[in-house]
Amino acid sequence: MASRLEAEHLYKVFGRRPDEAVERLRQGADREELRADGTTAAVIDASFTVEPGQIFVVMGLSGSGKSTLLRMLNGLLEPTAGHVRFDGQDLTAIGDRELREVRANKISMVFQHFALFPHRSVLENAAYGLAVQGVPRAEREKRAGEALALCGLAGWEKSWPDELSGGMQQRVGLARALATDADLLLMDESFSALDPLIRRDMQDQLLQLQQTLKKTIVFITHDLNEAMRLGDRIAVMRDGRIVQTGSAEDILLRPANDYVASFIQDVDRSRVLTAAAVMDEHIAGDEVSCGCETATTVTPFTELCAISARLTHPVAVLDAAGKLVGRVPRQRLVGLLGDQQGEPAPCDNPRDSRDGKVIANA
Ligand SMILES: Nc1ncnc2c1ncn2[C@@H]1O[C@H](COP(=O)(O)OP(=O)(O)O)[C@@H](O)[C@H]1O
Ligand SMILES: [Mg+2]
Questions:
Q1: Distance, CA 18 to ligand 1 centroid (Å)?
Q2: What domains lie within the chain, and their CATH numbers?
Q3: Do 15 and 80 contact (CB within 8 A), yes or no?
Q4: What is the pLDDT of residues 271-281, one digit of tens each?
Q5: Distance between alpha carbon 353 and the CA centroid of its chain, in Å?
């Protein structure tokens, strides 16, 4: 099946002579060099594909180019160079009217600060996208009501926005996006303004909704933990460029460079990794015979540590059919908790931690 969404060598340059700037970037110039002449290279040579039903997360610090990238994906911003294909249709090549139609019917956007209309009910707010599409009142209220229920807001239809908490208001925003039946959801820091607990709740809600709705989602965040929780695939941006694309496990276990490695230092690995990601693959031969505790490929890291602590040998990892597929030695687990690269460093080479203290090796 074709990818639902494809970005191909996308560039966005703000300022004078953007085409010339793209040429220089292609020759290897970086953002700083262009900034000297008052030109901003917001997005540089971004390529990726998003498959149907995937949550693709774009993660990067403020100013790294995430919002600009997202706005090119639905045609709100025209790329300086490159292509965006949505269901095989090149959005960079179609006319304005056609583009508006795609944007109104097939793509929904959820922003960080969701602007609800204060003098319209929650139901009317959720139905707003449908009103824009020209859906008749009865139909749009029915669909908006269903979307609100999906987002846990059944019973609040007649309320006013200011009667809702921040988290609930954000859920109205999500309901508005879901009500339109758009295949593609673009979410720009949609949960970033929420308190941590509510934010986690929203993440859970999104993951749960996604199990049944199977939308294609591009989710932007500056928070790596959020990226790891939500993303089937994650693109890490730095200074306009995507520096790594991969699963949460790829990024944690195989950071592409020092920048990504420094970013992941604060991630709670134990929440992300499963046995399958950390085991040594089993080479045919011996079988599990001791009858002691084992793990499966989906056993979470924390549980794996607990099992390991009760055994004197590596933890055997079984697949769904009960076949031995790998082993996890205890020092691997200890190493992953303490070391960024996932492998214990040699003993005569203590590394500096970020705050300057020398830490002992595991
Ligand atoms: N309309 C614009 N005109 C000029 N510069 C812009 C414009 N939009 C964004 N930028 C610049 O592009 C860079 C990337 O911005 P943005 O995409 O908003 O990053 P992020 O969403 O990751 O914080 C920043 O340096 C920003 O100042
Ligand atoms: Mg932004």
A1: 15
A2: 49-269 (3.40.50.300), 272-338 (3.10.580.10)
A3: no
A4: 778 888 889 88
A5: 28
